[in-house]
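This section describes the prediction task in plain terms. A model, or a person checking by hand, is given the sequence of a single protein chain and must write out its three-dimensional structure as a string of tokens. No templates, partner chains or ligands are provided. The sample shown here is typical of the held-out split.
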Amino acid sequence: MEKTSYSYKDAADLTNIAAAPEAVNESVNHSIIAIEEMNQTSAVSAQSTVAAAPTPSPTLLMPEGGAVKRGALDMLASIVDTITTHPGLMFLIGCIFVVVLLVIWDVRKKRKNGNG
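The expected answer:
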């Protein structure tokens, strides 16, 4: 079992805590009022920013310099992303890789023994 001891200072702090709820309630009420005021002003400013939003300018779909090279790289990156995120395709590629390795191993083994 733990042994706990209390000092006179702890007892004095407890008496100060008993008087604290009124001050705490008052500060909580002030902070709630301040938060409500901030919410109201932010809602008004949000409405004004939405109304004043400029229209977007049209952008080019392909950059002017090296459009063919960049487009090919983007297409290749898109294909690689599609393949690597699909677990079934990764499993199929793994199976094909193992089969190719086994075929290469078998051919080399036959050549070494003089059968091929």
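For orientation: Residues 85-116 form one domain.
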